[in-house]
Design goal:
Chain lengths: ~90, ~500, ~130
Amino acid sequence: MRGITALLVAVLVAVPPATAMQAHAAGDEPGEYLDRRVEIWNLFFRLMVVAFTIGAIVSGTMVWQVWRFRESNPNAKPTPYEEKGEW
Amino acid sequence: MTLEMQRPRPVWQIMFSTHHTDVGLLYLITSLAFLFLGGALALAIRVELFLPGSQFIADSMTFNRIFTVHGTTLIFLFILPFASAVGNYFVPIMVRYKDMAYPKLNAIAFWMIPPSGALIWLGFADFTWYATPPYSIISAPGPAADMWIFGLKILGISSVLGAINFVVTIMKCKHPDMSLGQVPLLAWSFLSSSLIILVAIPTFAAALLMLLTDRLGVSGFFNPAMGGDPIAYAHLFWFTFHPEVYVLVIPAIGMMYEIIPRFSRKPIFSYNSGVFAFVLLAIVGFSSWAHHMYATGMSFTEKTVFMVGTLAAVPASAMHVFNFLATMWNGRIRFATPMMWSVGGIALFFSAGAGGVVNAAMPLDFTTHDTYWVVGHFHLFVMGTIAFGSIGYLYYMFPYVTGRMYHEKMGQAHFVMSFIGAVLVFYTQHVLGLYGMPRRVYDYPAIPEWIAMNQIATVGAMLIGVSMVLFLANMIHSSAKGRPAGMDDPWKLGGKYYYPYQNKNPQH
Amino acid sequence: MYIGVVVALLVWVGAEAWNVERLVEHVPEDAEVIRVTGQQWFWTFEHEDGTTEVGELHVEAGKAYKFEIVSTDVIHSFNIHDYVVLMDAVPGRVNTVWFAPTEAGEHDIQCREYCGLIHYNMRATLYVEEPAA
């Protein structure tokens, strides 16, 4: 978990300056303008990659849980709380 | 041993009763009636958009009226009264009090809903549920707009009265042996959503009056022709209605907190994180309202502030999702109808939230603002999360209310069809928005992608429509002729969970 | 634990969005001003040289344009979806947004904020032409 956080922080530090430099290079040339389509849609696709990754993890977990912990699963066993008779 | 209908009584005895379960029943039936009415309007919208050109709605004015009343009805006359129904039934029991704190006030709050529903439906205004000025001031026709304003005014008062009642019931009337930290999460959800209402609603109440006097021509708060500013209305409106989104969603989450542990046969993974997330959401919910207004010409600084405020609401929602997943983990889950609706609701809640995070990024507003992306996004909340949680809870409380069991297979079919339908409609609408289709349009150019996606959405909506007919049949038939439920344990789950009809929670 | 991951992700989203917004809001100095007027239910465009167009807008590829968007009646929203241009036309305010078309072509202009009866058909066409010389 710590590894993921570190990775994210690294991405966080690295990505914005990189994009900022490219864009400035494009804007400095006379007659060369920033293409807002490129900037905005690229941002969208970057976010989508992350969103779909997280989405796959969470919904995958949910599907697996639903399959694994349903009471009709052959491996289903009473929860500890059931045995104590209170939950 | 049932909550309601201990014995058959004449209708008027229920209608004039102030007992919390009677008022709850009135809320319940009213909200369901408006669910079907508002849903029928949704189907009309979807059929009209099945193909470009005019289908069966004669003109755009009628169409505009339909989507306005659709939104107003489902938010104010279905979701809010349904939450009040659940709160009326369960909050007094959960805090171990004989009734709501102010029973007459409770009945008054309910009886404000039918007249305001009548005002909204008889008026049939056309200025969207946002009552967009200056359109609503200078262009919206006749008495319809004024009737809408009065209807909303009355509904606002009703909400505030209901909220006061819930807060007092929970804070002051709970059993002296119970601390606030022992109050079940469903009651906590009503406490936090009621507090949001008390803070948020007065702003909109003021804005509505200003809108009315603007329409009468005696003031010009939002009318640029008289030196006013329509953006001021946007701020006032969203200051109420962004937090209001949490008012709508928090009780639905609370209902899931009842159902999921019950059918997983485990206690809630973390009660404290649930309480914490409710309270946190109630506070940070007030920091994000202007993200609805990025395109109105806000400065970069304003946009940044409200983007941060919007993102700040996410951890609280993530805590709820994590809490649900952790509760289900290692459980022995019975997928009866209420559980299916709850789990489906969580899945859609997650995707709505993920879409919301993406959408909070301010440059993306240029691509998504006021397109069908927005429509898909908030419907994943209001339909996918709130209606799913609510309908699941309705199935859950059905045996306790009627003493009879609903038809299980029909309930499951209802869920499967609605879930597939919701995915078809609302996921497709996200993509449709990215292709640039504006919302609130009666007709659209014959762009092949737009047509295809509109048709997918319409098919999905029809699927939901059919499932709702099943639902109605199931509710009506089962409440009269259903198999009597074993009231100690309608789903035969075992265990010593406390039952909603018990006046005492054995664990508390 | 997991909340840390969520918060880190949110910070990343916020930082990326902040950066892109900063870039796209920076209007080039030499952008040509086009005054856009929205009214029920059509668009009027006024160029710097005084020529006025209704329902269509002609611009040249390779130049930057800054739209000054106003409305004479209710709120509209000026939108060229293909170029990700969107800004509300609010009566009593002048909102600005800029873009630089890159190649010749035709694009739809639409109204994206509900403005009444013919909102659905409040459309115009953007013609991007090759540079004159």
